[in-house]
């Protein structure tokens, strides 16, 4: 398919594999890119040195375009941008809206800037600052999410901005791609669907938990870090929701200490990053610490396979996914199904 997204970033199919922490590493990103989608490398859980190595590893595995996802609210975001520029990365995506200055720095270097947003006003803001496209995630999406469904949010954003809009939240097949295109989107972005592929490095036991989940097993909770966070319901999530403030703080301190050892961050830097996620909301100290070390909770499940100690971010589509194709098989299947649906719809024009 030829859409404004495929032309903008030079991919064969209007499909984006999102930058999921601990999940979107070199193997998954290169597999998605080789399949004709836009693979996005997740950098928030990497040290700057590891980010540089990961970019080089992706490039060693594919000649296709790929991007890097950044957290715009971290203190070293500008340094990570410089690493991207030095390594020749041509697409930058953001989990939160970047500043006008950061967008300008990237665009001056010829990088395509694609922030992720969850509201029309945020899309309008980054478009005014010069963003080349925007990924809009509805409430069905995994991780930090909003309350507005994709089917309502997407047309709002499409009507509000003049740049390509990529739809995220609730997509997993060719029917969804066609639906997004009908709303005016230039493509779809998928996280959970790419997590559940054979190219994903997530432990098999964790993938099995996702495959066994029903739609009702995917919940939104504020207990992890004080912000709405969509994930699989587990005993840990229930325990956090039922914990008193003192127990929650003790749990947060233990997790924060582990992430501090892993990341090399100082306590000051962790608290700063946690506070940066508040977005004007009231957070307890336990939530501030958990906000800073949410990556550690994700790592416990996504890397170590400890579903009892970690959290599993998930879109609602986990409840309707039942297989683990390769990225190549997945993208080909979505593209073929989309073409079939478009042909069926074209046939309706002849019905009287």
From TrEMBL:
Top-level taxon of origin: Bacteria
GO molecular-function terms, A-Z: dioxygenase activity; nitronate monooxygenase activity
Pfam family, one: NMO
Keywords: Dioxygenase, Flavoprotein, FMN, Oxidoreductase
InterPro entries assigned to the protein according to its UniProt record, in alphabetical order: Aldolase_TIM, NMO
Record keyword Thylakoid present: no
Protein name, entry field: 2-nitropropane dioxygenase
Organism listed in the record: Streptomyces monashensis
């Amino acid at each position: 398919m030829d859409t404004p997204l495929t032309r903008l970033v030079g991919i064969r199919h209007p499909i984006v594999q999102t930058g999921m922490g601990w999940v979107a590493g070199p193997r998954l990103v290169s597999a998605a890119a080789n399949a004709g989608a836009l693979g996005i490398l997740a950098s928030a859980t990497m040290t700057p040195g590891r980010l540089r190595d990961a970019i080089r590893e992706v490039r060693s595995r594919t000649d296709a375009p790929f991007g890097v996802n950044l957290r715009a609210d971290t203190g070293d975001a500008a340094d990570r941008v410089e690493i991207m520029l030095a390594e020749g990365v041509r697409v930058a995506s953001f989990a939160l809206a970047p500043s006008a200055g950061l967008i300008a720095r990237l665009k001056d270097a010829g990088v395509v800037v694609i922030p992720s947003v969850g509201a029309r006003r945020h899309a309008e803001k980054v478009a005014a600052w010069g963003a080349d496209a925007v990924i809009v995630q509805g409430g069905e999406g995994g991780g930090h999410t909003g309350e507005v469904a994709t089917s309502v949010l997407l047309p709002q954003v499409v009507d509000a901005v003049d740049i390509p809009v990529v739809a995220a939240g609730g997509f997993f097949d060719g029917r969804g791609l066609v639906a997004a295109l009908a709303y005016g989107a230039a493509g779809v972005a998928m996280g959970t669907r790419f997590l559940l592929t054979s190219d994903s490095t997530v432990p098999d036991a964790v993938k099995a938990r996702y495959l066994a989940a029903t739609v009702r097993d995917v919940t939104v909770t504020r207990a992890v870090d004080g912000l709405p966070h969509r994930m699989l319901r587990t005993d840990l999530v229930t325990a956090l929701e039922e914990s008193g403030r003192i127990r929650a703080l003790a749990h947060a301190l233990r997790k924060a200490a582990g992430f501090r050892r892993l990341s090399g961050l100082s306590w000051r830097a962790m608290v700063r990053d946690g506070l940066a996620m508040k977005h004007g909301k009231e957070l307890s100290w336990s939530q501030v610490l958990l906000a800073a070390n949410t990556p550690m909770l994700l790592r416990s499940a996504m890397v170590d396979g400890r579903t009892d100690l970690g959290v599993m971010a998930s879109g609602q589509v986990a409840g309707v996914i039942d297989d683990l194709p390769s990225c190549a098989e997945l993208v080909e299947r979505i593209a073929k199904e989309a073409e079939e649906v478009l042909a069926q719809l074209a046939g309706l024009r002849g019905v009287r």
